[in-house]
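User:
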Amino acid sequence: MHPIVKPALRRAWRDLNTVQFGMAPAHAMVLGPMDTATGSFLDLLDGTRGMPLLREQGREMGLPDGHVDGLVDRLARSGLLDDATGGGPAADALREKKEVMERMRPDLASLSLVAPEPGGAVARLAARRALRVQVRGAGRVGVVLASLLAGAGVGEVEVRDLGRVEPGDVAPGGLPVESIGERRQDAARRAVRRAAPDSSPRASSGEREGEATRGLSLVILAPRDALSVHAPDPVSAEPLITSGTPHLYVGVVEATGVVGPLVLPGDTGCAGCLDQVRTDRDPTWPRLVAQWRSGRQRRVPACDLGLAAAVAGLAASHALAFLDGDAPSAAGVRWEASLPGCDWHAKPVWAHSGCPCGAAEKTNGERASEDEEPHATMAGQQSHAAGLAGTWRAHV
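Assistant: Predicted structure:
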């Protein structure tokens, strides 16, 4: 082990005996009592020394026997310590890619704040390289989202869509203006490759048409059609439910951004549950959807660049949290924000007993009253998602 105090956290003395690690309340921690000699020793925990050398230098600084091991253990248990050589064989292979590591140091620093164990951050980053994600939809949201996932180190990001790039599909970080008129899948594949930190990323545009969902870690449904965002078709998601493939809905409908639900088949509410709950609350819902789907008038999508980028960014964060093994707050929830305020709020997607997905059987007794206000706090939804997904996060 080569201990290193997590460099993502700024360090400052609150008084002569107390050190604060970090500034933002979400990850900051106060440690004490700590004497001046121990505080000076913290500077040696920079990842360049193993434990034998640290013990020797600790003795030279006048620290008593066992003090160095105790300090390292204390920092590790507090989630403040990383291991510059940890993470296993996959992490070692990633460290050999010097240019990739240099580019992804901010991502690694961020992961170190949510992965408390030493070596956990680089292990998660290395694990992303073995993942395969499929994004269905190559519009203003879909391509930016796919590029973000590729840039964050996901090994294979596959984008699927039909038709050719139109001027309205162009977006910073997504499809460039030079791609207008090209096949959407081809243009999306190039965008993903440009974003990936590896020189030879495994980016695909649908070459495995016969593989369906086999081997996918996550499918992201980012349709360019606003109706498919507002009222996702349960029939089109049946293969995902049957195969047990997690899938996340994202998009923009009439200047309202939507992220979620993240469907964990058999555990959380799905598109079919959403449709049946809406029908229970509003008997005219099926009639409205039928008219919207039969409309032939071409409409210009109300999807401005700022909102599209916000949706793509939030969806990427939720997707990465799920892929990294954390409790995603989009599980069974739709996060929505509308212009001009862009105030994100959560709407639970309850599992419905009449939906064949089976999620209602597992969540029986967890659902709130039908009369409850259909909004939730982020903290509450994260707790609910953690129980359903069976994931964990250590809090010290």
